[in-house]
Protein: 4-hydroxy-tetrahydrodipicolinate synthase
Amino acid sequence: MFKPYGVIPALPTPMKENGVIDYEGLEKLVDHVIDSGVHGILVGGSNGEYSLMSPEERKEVIKFVIEKTDDRVPVMAGTGCHRTEDTIALTKFAAEAGAKNALVINPYYMAIGDEAIYDYYKTVAESSDIGIVIYNYPDATGIQLEPELIDRISRIDGVTGIKNTADGIHTSKVIALTQDNPDFSVLTGFEDLIVPSLSIGAVGAIGVVHNLVPEKIVKLYDLIVKENDIQEAIRLNSELLPLYSMVEEEVIPGTVKAGLEALGLPGGSSRSPLPPASEDFKEKIKSCLQKLENNTNVRS
Structure:
């Protein structure tokens, strides 16, 4: 099964003012990130507002992005649901539509123990035809998957990776425990951990800033993985640090959509109850992105 790697933007879902999905805008975003050299696309993740979509909308968005990607890069589809049966059904749909991997968040809200979480992933993986990527996001779920549990899950046939949106110590432990597993990829979900994670064995990064400065994130990846130029990677990363922090100042995906609009790309509103970015924030991120662009022009 396909193992994810590299720079993978977690696509937002452009919306019109009435909350209707802007499919024309979504196609533009797909072309924007692919033309910038990314290695894959995540559709239907947290940044894509999957939790505020109906089951049919989730399917429509997954199918649409896969069709518009047209095999230019692999597509990972967010398919996690509260019910195991629903996760399996959506994963099968994604596989039939052409997704290479399914991103599956662990069960949350009704907290369950490690054995039940392990059984959940085992059941989903055994029922799926594409690789299952664990989504560990304790800030959102309130449940931390410990490195030892992740290692156990990684040994399940059909589990091919993890988006680890957790701190650096946790990520380093996951890398250490799973480094002997040739069928498993560790990808960080935090932009500010791209440099340290790639430097110690992670193989990629899934994130939201990737939509705003995809060429720079791809360059950061190349500097570490292909060119072994850690000093230049540190320099580039230092330029990007203000943007990493800025997108977290207000509620995602409103901040990401504000950044896209500052670039002349479609963003639109977020679905209720998610608020849009404030006017002050829109000006702030526009200035930040312009500064990053000016820095690029000066060096080139």
Remarks:
- The chain has a mean pLDDT of 96.
- Residues 154 and 282 are 40 Å apart (CA to CA).
- The two ends are 40 Å apart (CA to CA).
